[in-house]
């Protein structure tokens, strides 16, 4: 893609370096709150480019803020770099097999190696623009750890790190290209710990109180609760302690981890209270003690149509990535040899506009329709940022159409040239959108007014209470 705007030329010039950086982070594949080497790589590159970096923000060792420029407006660009466990996968391979380049068994199954790198590159291009133009304003790159199951940004929001932003921009790698116009689900995650009393299961069962029974009854109760909750709500659980391996011992301890999701924060809170009541009932039935340990939470996305339209304009002007024959052939091989018709059909369903007869690679830009906001059934901690400051996000096509998130197929395509092309389109979109905002005070004012209106006059309340410690500090 040839471009003429200087900030886009900056991206063209620096793209080989950043492509290599995304590959390096793919190899590192570090899990939530353990992204030490990935964060270091970002920080060192940012400092070398002249950013002022604050490390360990919000008391999180792998979180940081890098800033350039002076005064207002202050535009934030959000980056992530965490991977998922158990998803190590050979790059480019069409069968599921662990990668020899990844030593820890993890894998970038959500493309956050691309996400953070494009956001970083965009921030560097914006810095270059501010310096060259002499325009007042500050660009801030947020190094956000632990999006996967850690709610890193929610803890950062609780610490007030986004409070002085005029707007925030980000993106996510995907199988198609377009502004993200759907709202994600708010969620709350908590451990339910039951304590009973051990006893010989045959000699003196009457002396035992089974914590495992309590956990099982809680799960049964919650499964009955499903019939009477909002259709768009979700409740998931994992048994994290079954109380031991001996059936002849009455299990004195058991623990189950619950993840509750609902379209709005207040609905998630209400459903969480009902789940807690089921747990209390289970504890009562089994004569066990119950302890509820709040783990993490995140808010739903508050859409901002003013910012979405601005980002959509830049995306439409840049156009879809120009995939070459080799890239189309690779995507076609993934589609035909590793994906099902249902995978592909499911990807089509999440588009604003139906895509009939899908090709291996998404070749256009999904039309943004203001006011038409679908429901996304995942959750993201970008939600919390969107309640604090006007926020917009886009998807760009980095993978064969139909590739599911959190799959080995997605990891396998993460170092391909097609993933890199999608990443660079995201960097251009973020940079172009941010640069326009520095000279569009009325757009920022409209975006802020829309945020206040959508919040209904209420302030942002972080869904993680103040007394909840970071997961790795417990
Ligand atoms: Zn993700």
From TrEMBL:
- One Gene Ontology cellular component annotation? cytoplasm
Q: Which PANTHER family match?
A: PEPTIDASE M20 (PTHR30575), XAA-ARG DIPEPTIDASE (PTHR30575:SF0)
Question: What range does the record give for the signal peptide?
Answer: none
Keyword list, A-Z: Hydrolase
Gene Ontology terms for molecular function: dipeptidase activity; para-aminobenzoyl-glutamate hydrolase activity
Q: Name one Pfam family in it.
A: Peptidase_M20
InterPro entries registered for this protein in UniProt: Amidohydrolase, Aminobenzoyl-glu_utiliz_pB, Bact_exopeptidase_dim_dom, Peptidase_M20, Peptidase_M20/M20A_hydrolases
State the species of origin.
Cupriavidus necator (Alcaligenes eutrophus)
Annotated transmembrane regions: none
Instruction: Report which superkingdom the organism of origin falls in.
Output: Bacteria
One GO biological process term: folic acid catabolic process
Q: What is this protein called?
A: Amidohydrolase
List the SUPFAM superfamilies hit by this protein, alphabetically.
Bacterial exopeptidase dimerisation domain, Zn-dependent exopeptidases
